[in-house]
């Protein structure tokens, strides 16, 4: 019983911390899901202490769906991101349960949902668009973002990485997972670290990222604006979110 109690107490402590983080971020949906899971864990603790047996195979309520967790991560980052970064952010700041392999088919599911009922959801997890207006492989965005934020020009991957680094550093979390994520990102930004062994100063990371952003921002903004104009003029609603069909895509569809 002691091991089970210890496990439940650790889980309860972790959930309480996650609820506080969600409340500070004003993320009501996540907070509600976490509180429900917290109540379930507390009931299990009470039952164990009092000697009651919980129902067999009782499963804790699900926190939030996969798409909701991806939505949280992308909202925090504020820029197109690869699935592994979204997973890391969800884990570090929201106590997420995402795995990269679960995101593989997510964008296709979103596109099918949109085509069957256009704009039936408040948001869609969609693709970044390349200079060919096709879906950029492995880059997720939100349908609620303007086209200029969902297209990617030559400098956009670097600009988006710096934007994401600023967002991560701005969270000021002492959670070990968040610190590890910031360390990894800071290593790829000149001047973001002092060369020491300790975690980087978030303010220093933000300053270094902003300094590099100033170098690229004007050109990238111009490139994105042109791509957005082309996308708006040439694509229908579905293609603006999920990309224009390419020859390889059409060939694959015909082969099915």
What does this molecule look like?
The chain has 2 domains: 2-50; 66-255, no CATH class. 62% of the residues lie in helices and 5% in strands. It is built from 11 helices and 2 strands.
Low-pLDDT stretches:
247-256
The string of secondary-structure elements, in order, is HHHHHEEHHHHHH
Number of helices, where a helix is a run of at least 4 consecutive DSSP H or I residues: 11
Q: How much of the sequence is in beta strands?
A: 5-15%
Number of strands: 2
The overall average pLDDT, rounded, is 84
Helix content: 55-70%
Large-scale geometry:
flat
Strands in their spatial order, largest beta sheet: 1-2
Radius of gyration: 21 Å
Short key terms for the protein model shown above:
2 strands; 2 domains; 256 residues; disordered C terminus; mainly alpha; 11 helices
Quick overview of this protein structure:
The chain has 256 residues and is mainly alpha-helical. The protein has 11 helices and 2 strands. The chain starts with a helix and ends with a helix.
């Amino acid at each position: 019983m002691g091991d089970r109690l210890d496990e439940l107490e650790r889980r309860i402590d972790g959930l309480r911390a996650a609820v506080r983080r969600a409340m500070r971020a004003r993320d009501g949906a996540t907070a509600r899901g976490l509180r429900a899971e917290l109540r379930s864990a507390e009931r299990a603790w009470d039952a164990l202490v009092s000697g009651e047996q919980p129902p067999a195979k009782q499963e804790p309520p699900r926190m939030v769906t996969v798409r909701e967790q991806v939505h949280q991560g992308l909202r925090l980052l504020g820029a197109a991101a690869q699935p592994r970064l979204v997973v890391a952010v969800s884990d570090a700041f929201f106590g997420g349960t995402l795995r990269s392999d679960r995101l593989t088919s997510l964008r296709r599911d979103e596109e099918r949902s949109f085509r069957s009922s256009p704009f039936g959801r408040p948001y869609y997890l969609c693709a970044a668009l390349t200079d060919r207006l096709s879906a950029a492989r492995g880059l997720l965005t939100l349908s609620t973002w303007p086209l200029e934020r969902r297209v990617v020009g030559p400098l956009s991957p670097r600009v988006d990485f710096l934007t994401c680094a600023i967002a991560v550093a701005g969270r000021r979390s002492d959670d070990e997972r968040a610190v590890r994520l910031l360390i990894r990102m800071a290593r790829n930004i000149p001047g973001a670290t002092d060369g020491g062994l300790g975690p980087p100063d978030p303010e220093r990371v933000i300053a270094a990222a902003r300094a590099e952003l100033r170098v690229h921002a004007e050109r990238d903004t111009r490139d994105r604006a042109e791509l957005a104009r082309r996308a708006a003029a040439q694509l229908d609603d579905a293609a603006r979110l999920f990309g224009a069909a390419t020859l390889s895509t059409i060939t694959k569809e015909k082969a099915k």
